[in-house]
Design goal:
Layout (H helix, E strand, L loop, with lengths): L5 H5 L5 H17 L6 H13 L24 E6 L2 E8 L7 H6 L15 H8 L7 E5 L4 E3 L12 E3 L4 E4 L13 E3 L4 E5 L12 E3 L4 E4 L13 E3 L4 E4 L13 E3 L4 E4 L12 E3 L4 E2 L12 E3 L6 E2 L13 E3 L4 E4 L13 E3 L4 E5 L12 E3 L4 E3 L4 H4 L6 E3 L15 H15 L3 H7 L2 H30 L8 H4 L7 H4 L9 E2 L2 H7 L8 E5 L2 E7 L5 E11 L3 H12 L9 E8 L6 E9 L6 H5 L10 H20 L15 E3 L5 E3 L10 E3 L5 E3 L5 E2 L7 E2 L3 H16 L5 E2 L7 E2 H6 E2 L2 E2 L14 H14 L10 H22 L11
Parallel strand pairs: 2-3, 3-5, 4-6, 5-7, 6-8, 7-9, 8-10, 9-11, 10-12, 11-13, 12-14, 13-15, 14-16, 15-17, 17-19, 18-20, 19-21, 20-22, 21-23, 22-24, 23-25, 26-30, 29-35
Antiparallel strand pairs: 1-2, 27-28, 28-29, 29-31, 30-31, 32-33, 34-35, 36-37, 38-39, 40-41
Helix pairs in contact: 3-5, 7-8, 7-9, 15-16, 15-19, 16-18, 18-19
Bound molecules: adenosine-5'-triphosphate.
The site of adenosine-5'-triphosphate has 21 residues, from strand 27, strand 29 and strand 31.
Length: 819
């Protein structure tokens, strides 16, 4: 059992899980430094390399590898003690499908799962050669088959993490004899059967992650026997029935996440869970009564349920509450006004309910509040003053009420006066009686309004859940992602340790960038400079500054940025926060600063540029980079609802990290508004109108075609080693000089191809890339492929290249960029 130092304990429960595994690993690394591994264990590691079909993290392993002293990375961590492996953590790069995709798709593709010859039993046999194993974490490796029960022969196992694979069947009862187990993470597989309550005999189990599987049935009352449970996630399963009241006896529970199941009826009293800080019950049919909750909660997500009646007054003593989402329920009456000014509240979403009444004109908003949404309710009276003040730090949404204001679309008074009574009556099945006493005119308005509200509610909830369901590769709920301090390192390995997004003040940005010092300038684009900066915890960031002329409501811009802030994908540069500052004395001119993850190895264009002191990128590396960038853009097009298009795709917007992992930046900025530069050089940000092909200035393109076209240029650039030459760009049909030269009857013209790759690049691989590039650049817009097709073809080209390279060179000399 790994111990936690007294000092760490003082820091509080929230770091306990983190400390447990990391202290384990640190101890293991310290003890392991001088170890020599037995030859049986070396053979088993090599067997694993073969079984797992050489994921990039294990590609260089050979008999000569000093396994116990490999530097730990986010994809591989091995520790030894007394000649034994005690920690084995491998994170692969197989694409993580959603549960629905896993069921609907024929997922035989090599980038999703291991081949048919794989056997989970052989995997277990190889692992059992490490009898002292304490931490086993095999994530995103495409492992399929049943969970091997024989792993119960690992008596020291404390952490077992098989997240984001394709394990099927039920959780073996034999796991109940893993007496040392503390963390079990089986989320994002295709496991089925009932909730494995037999694990309640494990005395040390404190973390159980089972989200995104196909577990069925109800939660048994024996759940209370998980005596030491601190974190339980069961999101995205098929669980039904009532939550057992015995759940309130899990006295150590800190995190409970049951979203997107089919639970129903009233939620039991959770007030006795004195340690519970994170509660996510989103997307069930809980209700109608509002449950009793403990006032130590930090995050409460109960949106999209069937809660009715007033919002309880007890929230007024929730001093730690940071996020409260009660949207898409049937809550009615006036909300407690103190809710709006709770000291810690950052996100308050009460939208799409039946809340009514007049909010005080002097309603005060909490200083920490970043997002307030009370839209689509039945509020009347004057708009509280605090909601009328423009703020660059808060996003305030109040449309679709009956406030007396011209701001944000409001409904006529009759809509709100008739509706609360009617909707309340509707929910209590007395609609007929009430309709009889309400005038015909009001009834007509109400019927139309109900219809509109239902359609709107359906669309919004659908959009909301799809948006939330995708865009994370970890299988972890996005609310949970934003709450990373609760996540154990087991799950965190699937993320890139990205800090929470936030709104920055100008002063903070000045501190971060040393007063926007010229020394910190990373580069300059069309709209302004990009600076390097540092957050308080030392994390490096990029701060992009742009002058914007906002003819539209500033909240539209904020809403769009809030959307971009939620996007997380390993091939997209994460936006971490922003600052919107009005220019002094100017009505419409603002300065927008976007703070993003810092990517430290330059742009694809700079890496392709020839210099004497650096080696050129190999063809395989180029392919891995474009596959990665393609996946990022594909995610923007089809992984989000609504998709994000027109992303200014070019080789200066593809950044690379130290492992040559491609990350697309600057997405979502051009496509949603038409950019035009005024005579004063300011970027004018307007509502979406049309999309303009940057290469063919006259062309009007829609949706994804322009990104695909621009991606064609990226592909040409990796082939030529420099941007393609466009002859006469302003002609009716601008011509790309090299395009025809590149393919002559599908035979590449080696004389125009970048000399750095000639000789190592396989003709079939090159021809595949040229072929798909030509399609991307097709004059006929309808002939352009989707990003999905493009990525598929590029992966094929990479596979062809890799197969040949493997035959030509010994495995441990191959270096690959990660995708
Ligand atoms: N997140 C980041 N991490 C590291 N460097 C960055 C980051 N974002 C931008 N840069 C650097 O700043 C430079 C300027 O970026 P910017 O996006 O403003 O312009 P651009 O991509 O060169 O041109 P455009 O304005 O057409 O997009 C980039 O070329 C890159 O070197």
């Amino acid at each position: 059992m790994c111990s936690v130092s007294p000092k760490s304990v003082k820091q509080g429960w929230k770091f306990l899980v983190l400390l447990k595994v990391s202290s384990c690993c640190i101890a293991c690394i310290l003890f392991g430094l001088a170890d020599a591994l037995s030859s049986t264990q070396i053979q088993s590691l090599l067997a694993l390399q073969k079984l797992l079909e050489r994921p990039s993290a294990l590609n260089s392993w050979s008999l000569q590898t000093d396994f116990c002293n490999l530097p730990p990375s986010s994809s591989l961590n091995i520790s030894c003690s007394d000649g034994n492996i005690i920690v084995l953590q491998i994170v692969g790069d197989k694409i993580s499908l959603s549960v629905e995709q896993k069921f609907n798709a024929n997922y035989t593709e090599a980038n999703v799962r291991l081949s048919d010859s794989f056997s989970s039993d052989s995997l277990a046999n190889a692992i059992l050669k490490f009898p002292n194993l304490r931490v086993l974490s095999l994530v995103s490796l495409g492992i399929w088959g049943v969970l091997p029960g024989k792993l119960d022969r690992l008596p020291s196992l404390q952490v077992l993490n098989f997240s984001s694979n394709l394990f099927s069947g039920s959780v073996p009862q034999r796991f109940a004899s893993l007496g040392s187990l503390e963390i079990l993470a089986l989320d994002n597989n295709i496991l089925n059967g009932p909730f494995p309550d037999w694990l309640n005999v494990l005395p040390n189990l404190d973390t159980l992650y089972l989200s995104s599987n196909r577990f069925v049935g109800s939660l048994p009352s024996s759940i209370s026997l998980f005596q030491n449970l601190q974190s339980l996630t069961l999101d995205h399963n098929l669980l039904t029935g009532q939550l057992p009241s015995s759940i309130s006896r899990l006295k150590y529970l800190q995190l409970l996440s049951l979203s997107e199941n089919m639970f129903a009826d009233n939620i039991p009293n959770l007030g006795s869970l004195r340690n519970l800080q994170y509660l996510n019950l989103r997307g069930n049919s809980f209700g109608p009564d509002f449950p009793i909750l403990g006032n130590q909660l930090v995050s409460v997500y109960m949106q999209s349920n069937k809660l009715a009646g007033p919002i309880p007054r007890f929230f007024q003593s929730f001093y730690n509450l940071q996020s409260l989402d009660l949207s898409f329920n049937s809550l009615s009456g006036a909300p407690p006004f103190t809710l709006f000014s709770l000291p810690s509240i950052r996100l308050l979403d009460l939208s799409d309910n039946q809340l009514s009444g007049v909010l005080p004109y002097n309603l005060s908003l909490g200083t920490a509040l970043v997002l307030l949404d009370i839209s689509s309710n039945f509020f009347t009276g004057p708009l509280p003053r605090a909601l009328t003040l423009p703020s660059s730090e808060k996003l305030l949404k109040f449309q679709e009420n009956c406030f007396v204001t011209a701001l944000q679309q409001q409904q006529p008074q009759a809509y709100c006066q008739g509706m609360p009574t009617l909707m309340a009556a509707h929910s209590s099945h007395h609609v007929g009686l009430i309709v009889g006493v309400v005038s015909g005119v009001v009834a007509m308005i109400a019927v139309v309004a109900i219809l509109l509200a239902t359609i709107r509610s359906f669309n919004r909830s659908k959009r909301g859940s799809s948006l939330l369901a995708e865009h994370n590769t970890s299988g972890v709920q996005p609310e949970l992602l934003s709450y990373t301090r609760y996540l154990s390192p087991v799950i965190k390995t699937r993320m890139t340790d990205i800090p929470q997004s936030r709104v920055f003040s100008l002063q903070q940005l000045e501190e971060m960038t040393h007063n926007f010092s010229q020394k910190e300038v990373l580069g300059e684009g069309q709209h302004g400079q990009v600076y390097k900066g540092w957050l308080e915890d030392g994390t490096a960031v990029a701060v992009k500054s742009m002058a914007v002329d906002l003819r539209q409501d500033v909240t539209q811009l904020q809403a769009h940025i809030e959307l971009l802030l939620k996007i997380r994908h390993r091939n997209l540069v994460s936006l971490l926060g922003y600052c919107l500052e009005r220019e002094i004395g100017q009505q419409n001119y603002w300065h927008l600063f976007l703070v993003s993850e810092f990517v430290d190895n330059g742009t694809l264009r700079s890496k392709l540029a020839k210099t004497e002191d650096k080696e050129s990128l190999s063809w395989s590396q180029r392919l891995d980079i474009v596959v990665g960038a393609g996946k990022g853009i594909q995610h923007l097009h089809s992984g989000l609802v609504p998709g994000i298009f027109n992303n200014d795709v070019n080789t200066t917007n593809i950044l690379l990290d130290q492992n040559l992992l491609a990350k697309v930046c600057d997405f979502g900025l051009a496509g949603h508004w038409q950019d035009s530069q005024g005579s004063d050089g300011k970027l004018t940000v307007q509502k979406p109108t049309t999309y303009i092909d940057v290469n063919h200035q006259r062309r009007k393109l829609g949706l994804s075609e322009m990104d695909v076209y621009n991606f064609g240029h990226v592909l040409l650039e990796i082939v030529l080693g420099k941007p393609a030459t466009i002859e006469n760009p302003y002609a009716a049909k601008p011509k790309i000089k090299e395009l025809e030269l590149l393919i002559t009857d599908h035979v590449p013209r080696w004389d125009v191809i970048d000399s750095a790759v000639v000789g190592t690049c396989m003709a079939e691989s090159l021809a595949t890339v040229l072929d798909i590039a030509a399609k991307c650049l097709s004059e006929d817009i309808s002939a352009r492929p989707s990003m999905e097709d493009v990525v598929w073809n590029l992966q094929y080209a990479a596979q062809v290249q890799e197969n040949v390279s493997r035959e030509l060179s010994p495995p441990d000399t191959q270096t690959k960029a990660r995708t």
